[in-house]
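TL;DR need structure tokens for one chain.
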Amino acid sequence: MPDLEAILLVGGQGTRLRPLTLGTPKPLLPTAGVPFLAHQLARARSFGVRRIVFATSYKASMFEPAFGDGAALGLSLEYMTEETPLGTGGAIRNAAEALAAGPDDPVLILNGDILSGHDIGEQVRLHRARQAAVTLHLTEVDDPTRFGCVPTDEAGRVTAFLEKTPNPVTNRINAGCYVFTRSVIDSIPRDEVVSVERETFPGLIESGRLVLGYADRTYWLDVGTPSAYVQGSRDLVLGRLASPALPGPTGEYLMLEGARISPEAKVLGGTVVGARAVVEAGASVAGSVLSDDCVVEAGASVTDSVVGRGARICAGTVVRDAVIGDAAVVGAGNELQNGVRIWPGIELPERAMRYSSDV
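>> reply
TL;DR here they are.
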């Protein structure tokens, strides 16, 4: 297969992941020991992608310092910024200015918040063989009511784009990875706010162009919420989704440079222990993301949570399904759970927050 070009949509603000995204765009959040996008870039390269244009908007200046020109990854990277957000279609059209692909060439579109194990090469081959205008990756989910669903006919042709509904006609949803024929991208109006889901795709279907669905049931995750972000990191560390970018062997935990785990601590469940982070004696950490330079003190317990850079979880504190912002200090004897979020730099006094009635 000839070298492929791709556009990577990374303009979103990641509001559902605050406070993690206050200082860092979602696609750069550390996930299984490297920025989230490193996994996507490595997978794209494994399927023959050699040139990727980043469509940036929120905190746009942070992407190039993270990945540079892409040479270290075996890729050529370009960065295009939207001055004002233009929607998915507008972002793709804006980024396309930096493409070298000809009008009939396929262009891969990736979303910067999706982890997927699907076969990109197969999706591109289907697109070429059927000479489609667009070929969408569709994934099957158990509960399609939370997503727009995408029905197809027996030949795989997409027949409609249906918004979220209590009674979906199919459990196949738009999985956020598209192959466009270049000329179709060029037909999107320039410098206008356009949604591919609400305008471009339905417009193509209406005008009789071939919009194909490539459906499968491989690993797929939208990492837009704290619990999904933690799950994505955990699944990569445990090896549930293979990634060429993982900076160590798969297993119960991944330890980054300079991290220290006491022999009397328990760390398991696909946890990442960030660079120079410390887990003290008697502490237990399960299925969590411990960021660089954070400390989990003696006897504290952290489960299914994110602990920000330089944050400290003091002795005996219980953190479950929570997000602790960078440089926050959670005093001894607190109980934080049920999706609670502590903003960066906040200091919680000893026993400031409890769920159980004991003292």
